[in-house]
Fold this sequence. Notes:
GO terms for molecular function: potassium ion transmembrane transporter activity; symporter activity. The chain is an alpha/beta fold.
Amino acid sequence: MIDTPIGGSKTAPVSRSGHHSTRKLTLTLGALGVVFGDIGTSPLYAFKVAIDATGNPGPEAVFGVLSLILWALVLVVTAKYLFWILRVDNAGEGGILALAALLRLDRPRGLKPHALALLAVALAGGALLFGDAVLTPAISVLSAVEGLGEITTSLDHLIVPVALVIIVGLFAAQLLGAGRIGKAFGPVMLVWFAMLAISGGIQIARTPQVLEAASPHYALFYLAGHPATAAAICGAVFLAVTGGEALYADLGQFGRRAITNAWIFVAFPALVLNYFGQGALVLSGRAVGSSTFYGLFGGAVLPFAVILATLASIIASQAVITGIASLASQSMRLDFLPSMRIRYFSATNHHDLLAPGVNTLVGVSTALVVLSFGSSDALSNAYGIAVAGAMASTTALYLAYLLQRKGEGVWRGLSVAVTVLFLLLDVAFVAANLGKIEGGGLLPIGLASAVVFLAVSWRVGQMRMAALQEGDEQNLRDYVKASGNRPPTTQRAAVFLVRRGASVPRALAELNELTETRFARTILVSVRTWAIPRVSQDERIQRSEIRPGLARIVVNVGYMQRINLPSLIAAELQSLGVDPDEAVYITGLERPVPPSIFAKPEGLVLSAYAVMARLALRPPDRFMLPPSRTLEVGMPRYL
């Protein structure tokens, strides 16, 4: 189990302040690299796509688009996420699954209809983030590498091959661990944001009238005057806030203060300056080439800008990849997805992990997307709809959380009203992005639908298996009475893994009946995953002795904690007179046998569950049991 170390060497009071300041600066710099990597690379394509959507990039369109982008950043990122949603966390952790856990949606059995609807919203939002993880590296890397064509058109044919090489290398590098390859994220992104601010500021100084676009009336009047293209323009403007969901998802890794400082003092002003600089470039008529972003740079600086943009896009992609690995790990622990192999690279940072299967699937999908679309302009039609849906899902769950809280009087009513306004804003952006469905938007929706189907199939199958197991389990009192005082046939102690709430596991009953094996000591161990990130040390283990030679241990863990079961229960085994290095671990290896796909209405769902169950990580690997002392008792289960 990985926990944050407690204690450490003592320091003098005078150095504590310096250490605290250094830690705050480090966290802020880290947040700049990880949290704002995605939204920080949006200037590569967002303004160009939005101004092209107007159909007539004249002064009216430039002022309208800039005003829309500015106030989207203010309302969605600053107001909604930074000053509103980040106020609610689950023991320090954020993200859509943290909200689902706060709403107790991780155990759907017995949920009321409205709670099941919220569970569907949570699953849809999480699934859309998987789709976003495929599209973000593709559009970020493509838009950066397209700078080669701005240097010279003779390099256009290299854009897709170079993008593919970068993407393949990026996903392969995950095997090294995000912590190792991400140490330079913060400094590189600091240079990137500085370049955004300087390049934009130079153009603003040349055309200062562009600053008038800060007034919101330009956005309102432009949309009102162009109703036919308003939805397309809003859908394009939304590209400027993609990545905003990362503020909440990475809350546990950096904290609210570091994220706030990085946004307010660095990312936000740099983005605004760059967008307004691109607008100034178009207003002045100095824009050349196909990219308004790369048009900000002169000939000598352009190669450097392309290289730095490529590095920034890699960092943006890395942040998304790391986030999806963490989301997949949480989904497995909360039983939304089957257990898969997880590699941990740090003993202190539980976010530094890799889900190899998920990483491979996302990497292959991203490479196929690059090959299929071939340019950031084409991909922009598919990008954004997944993020818009995920943002709306988060806000809806946040609203549900506020509604279930008691008391607080007027403040509660005001909080609900403000959240409803934010939800309406999210719904408006979702509606604006619906026009992208025909041009590629079906891709993220299809990816999300596949993930939702797998999650539902897994949960339905798990509930069916639990019902079958309950029917087979022997009552604990009956087992104790039947076993009586019969002497053990072996002096070894056995640890049986049983599901939470189980009586006597089928594996134990079958060993007793078929082989007449009776152990000197039998310990029934259940692992319970709570809807909180981490369980404290003093609340982790619960033990009870049923009778001499028979005991039960319940291990409580959070959904972000690793489970090294032998290490966790070693002290309890010793107190029971069992040598932890000699105990035998016995698990049930139950093979689900589905009905014919057409035999039952849920035949397809149960068939999908059976396939996932066979591919899922087995308990010995999931709980890090010693292979030489682990026995799996197999048996079929007919669903």
